[in-house]
UniProtKB/TrEMBL annotation:
Protein family according to the UniProt entry: Belongs to the peptidase C19 family.
Protein name as annotated: ubiquitinyl hydrolase 1
Keyword Protease: yes
Domain (USP) ranges: 20-332
SUPFAM superfamilies recorded: Cysteine proteinases (SSF54001)
A single BP term in Gene Ontology: proteolysis
Enzyme class, spelled out: hydrolase
Signal peptide per UniProt: none
Protein species of origin: Trypanosoma vivax (strain Y486)
Gene3D superfamilies: Cysteine proteinases
Length: 349
């Protein structure tokens, strides 16, 4: 761990042990940020570090290696081994990724490595929930179809929105779709109809990954740009208004997680859409800290939020525009279970 920092609050001193950073290797700030977001989810970290039978799979062993370094007194933590594994399909050349894209890629690689093992569902068990979709045929109210789909993250549009709740409202607005082929009754031939589709949360994940989509296409420059409007989100996120209601039978037979989530960490992007820099803000040992490659320091909760919201360039970091690009929330019902600290192996390979 990094050395302790003493914070004074109303005349009282509290020692905060800051986590370790990771060396930036050839523009690896995106990988460093994703590794930190995952490392600070102890349940995920423990699962990766206790995979025994498949610990020689490249993605598992390399991720375990950097997790072990982060937990040790290593002077310079390196993610080069993991970088090599993830860039092997690209000729060994590292190309900067969007944090959400990179995290999903790591999940896919881990899931593939865990196939035909007892750990096959470990990513799903932590990050996956279900969305329910209800489809109605306009003008034919007797037709009602429902189905569920799994999700491992939620993408929310930021354009024209001021808060995460406005984006969630848009996500759940009825969508009208033209010329959908439906068989209204078992005996009828398929015909084209206009339908209205509504999506709601059906089953909540232990850890909720939120991807604020700030990308927009500029017609003047014909380029993808990053929107810098202020977009706020709370430390505690209540999703109850966005969850599909349960029947009495479901309430008795199905133990679902509640709707309240607590913010654990934030991935932050600085700069234009085509490039820029990534770092993370993490709630660590009851305090917030900024982890920017090897630079690690304490910040106030207010500062962490203001840096993440976007809008006017913040004095933090020299006045450069910064905004949240990934939010990690932990369900309050399983917060103690998910964040219970377990020491990773002390051996660094």
């Amino acid at each position: 761990m990094s050395g302790p920092v003493v914070n004074g609050d109303n005349g009282q001193e509290n020692t905060v042990h800051l986590p370790s950073g990771i060396v930036n290797s050839a523009g690896s700030c995106d990988l460093n940020a994703v590794v930190q977001l995952l490392y600070h989810l102890p349940s995920f970290r423990e699962a990766v570090c206790s995979m025994g039978a498949i610990d020689q799979e490249p993605i598992v062993s390399s991720l375990r290696d950097v997790f072990t370094q982060l937990n040790s007194n290593v002077a310079e933590v390196s993610a080069k081994k993991l970088m090599g594994v993830l860039s092997s399909k690209n000729g060994g050349t590292w190309v900067q990724h969007d944090l959400h894209e990179l995290m999903q890629h790591i999940f896919e690689e881990l899931s593939a490595a865990c196939e035909r093992t007892s750990q096959v569902n470990f990513v799903k068990n932590i990050f996956c929930g279900e969305l329910s979709y209800t489809t109605r045929a306009l003008g034919h109210e007797e037709y009602l179809a429902t189905h569920s789909e799994q999700f491992s993250s939620i993408e929310l549009l930021v354009k024209g929105k001021n808060t995460i709740f406005e984006s969630l409202d848009q996500l759940q607005e009825p969508q009208r779709i033209e010329s959908v082929s439906l068989q209204l009754t078992p005996e009828a031939a398929p015909t084209l109809h206009t339908v209205e589709r509504i999506q709601r949360f059906e089953r909540m994940p232990h850890v909720l990954i939120v991807h604020p989509n700030r990308a927009d296409f500029c017609m003047e420059t014909m380029e993808i740009v990053t929107l810098d409007n202020k977009w706020t989100f709370p430390m505690q996120l209540d999703l109850q208004p966005y969850i599909s209601p349960q029947t009495d039978d479901e309430k008795e037979s199905d133990k679902r997680l509640g709707a309240l989530y607590v913010l654990r960490s934030v991935g932050v992007h600085q700069g234009p859409a085509q490039s820029g820099h990534y770092f993370v803000l993490v709630h660590h040992q009851g305090n917030w800290c900024c982890i920017d490659d090897t630079r690690v320091f304490s910040i106030s909760a207010e500062c962490a939020m203001n840096v993440s919201y976007g809008g006017e360039p913040h004095r933090f970091g020299g006045g450069l525009a910064r905004r949240a690009c990934l939010l990690v929330y932990v369900n309050a019902d399983v917060q103690e279970e998910e964040l219970k600290h377990v020491e990773p192996p002390s051996t660094v390979s």
